[in-house]
Design a protein that fits this description.
single chain, 307 residues, alpha/beta, 11 helices, 43% helix
């Protein structure tokens, strides 16, 4: 009787944490610790001596069903801006809207499934089970032209995060508060801090080890996001600089960030890596990955790489 009641309670606990918290693909904002609590509870229950072997096996089965099998290939892509006609601004970092749509089609063709920021955190820190081919799209700098491709993200049912330079929100070239709030509310796009006003100075500040200026600026960015109920626990390094600096890792941790995205640091995201140095793959005109054939070759090689 004890074992049946025990297993029933465990299953209720499991369902609450991993089903109830997901509503139409949206995560409750305070859910970031639920996976950790669930693993702790499973471990505690397994330590109880009165559990029968059958009960223990059922609990272990549940545990294994929510943990990584080591076969996952999680890719995080880094985009910047987009254009769709000849009058739009074009830079070596931008790609066309039509090229972006081809990328989404290729990811679906190769059966990549979307994950969100909380999934990534759980996967890296606690070995949470995710799809064996998982993808997360990031968009740096908060360009207004992101809205050119937002409907495509929803159409193909992907997820991602947009990195906001908070000191320039509402400028002519950036997303405004209403657009950012809409992204947050609809649940396809996470909000990521990308500094407040030192984005273009970040390389110099890191080189000069001006950690006080860096900390004060990132703090302002987080305060801005908090003010408009857009709080985030992720940071993206401006210009992909500083991701190996342990002093900046400490600053981010002290300010309440739990993870940070790098760039140009390998392909796969594996569990157990440094949460403040998460690699991304840049996609831009300058490296040629905007082209359909190059992007397809990249995905093909990744899928067929057993390492």
């Amino acid at each position: 009787m004890f074992n049946k009641l025990f297993i029933f309670i465990l299953i209720l606990f499991f369902v609450f944490n991993f089903v109830f918290l997901k509503v139409e693909g949206k995560e409750k904002d305070n859910s970031v610790l639920n996976f950790e609590k669930s693993l702790y509870e499973i471990g505690r229950l397994l330590s109880i001596e009165k559990i029968s072997n059958g009960g223990r096996d059922k609990i272990l089965k549940i545990k294994n069903s929510i943990l990584s099998n080591g076969k996952e290939k999680l890719l995080i892509f880094m985009y910047h801006g987009f254009y769709d006609d000849q009058n739009d601004l074009k830079t070596k970092y931008f790609i066309s809207k039509s090229e972006f749509e081809e990328h989404l089609k290729i990811l679906r063709e190769f059966n990549f499934k979307p994950v969100n920021m909380i999934d990534i955190y759980y996967f890296i820190k606690f070995k949470k089970k995710i799809p064996e081919r998982a993808v997360y799209l990031t968009f740096d700098d908060g360009f207004k032209n992101f809205m050119k491709v937002y409907e495509l993200i929803k159409k193909y049912e992907f997820k991602g995060g947009i990195s906001i330079i908070t000191g320039f929100v509402n400028d002519r070239w950036t997303l405004d508060l209403d657009e950012i709030s809409k992204l947050k509310e609809e649940g396809y796009i996470d909000i990521i801090s990308h500094s407040h006003k030192i984005h273009n100075l970040f390389k110099k500040l890191v080189k000069n080890k001006d950690y006080e200026t860096i900390k004060n600026d990132i703090k302002k960015s987080k305060e801005f996001l908090n003010l408009y109920n857009l709080d985030t626990f992720a940071f993206a390094y401006p210009l992909s600089i500083g991701s190996n600096d342990l002093n900046i890792h400490k600053i981010l941790s002290e300010l309440g960030f739990k993870m940070a995205f790098d760039g140009f640091n390998g392909y796969f995201v594996k569990n157990g890596i440094n949460l403040f140095n998460i690699p991304r793959i840049e996609v831009s005109t300058r490296n040629g990955l905007n082209k359909k054939e190059n992007f397809r070759n990249l995905i093909f090689n990744i899928v067929n790489n057993s390492n």
